Amino acid sequence: MTKPIILYFNVVNPEKYNQFYDILKLNKQTIIFLDGDIGSGKTTFVKSFSKKFSNQNIHSPTFSLINEYITPKFKIFHYDLYRINSTQELFEIGVDNYFMQDGLHFIEWARKYTNFLPHPDYKIQFHNYNPYRILKITDYVKQR
User: Cα-flanking dihedrals φ and ψ of residue 87, to 5°?
Assistant: First the structure.
């Protein structure tokens, strides 16, 4: 088995996150883990990325836990697992049913439940060094 490809990016303007659309190889079902401290840019990444497909107003799923958006090209699922306290809660919200659907699956705080989630196609770590953000993208797709 080959090692994943790791890429680093220095981002000055988080509104330009949509540039990663050209870097990520998106399939009809793509799993993307988003990892970083609170306020590091995870939801901003999803908002900016989704603008490539739609003008919908994307909101943080902090309280709803899962938001679903339909765009002309992809269905977008945005999960925030920060407030989930157990694997029982994880499955009570029906997370396993969502992953059976095609679409872009952006999962914030996935590291809490990696053993219970599908293997990601990409893992993006956000490091905030005001005014810059360093993104570490682990690409598991190109290793296959």
Answer: -65, -30
Q: How far apart are CA 75 and CA 103, in angstroms?
A: 5
| Prediction pTM value | 0.89
Per-residue pLDDT tens digits for 61-81: 766 788 898 888 889 999 999
Domains in the chain, please, with CATH? 5-139 (3.40.50.300)
Per-residue three-class SS string for the chain: CCCCEEEEEEECCHHHHHHHHHCCCCCCEEEEEEEECCCCCHHHHHHHHHCCCCCCCCCCCCCCCEEEEECCCCEEEEEECCCCCCHHHHHHCCHHHHCCCCEEEEEECHHHHHHHCCCCCEEEEEEEECCEEEEEEEECCCCC
pLDDT digits (tens, 9 = 90+) for 11-47: 887 767 777 777 888 888 999 999 998 888 888 888 8
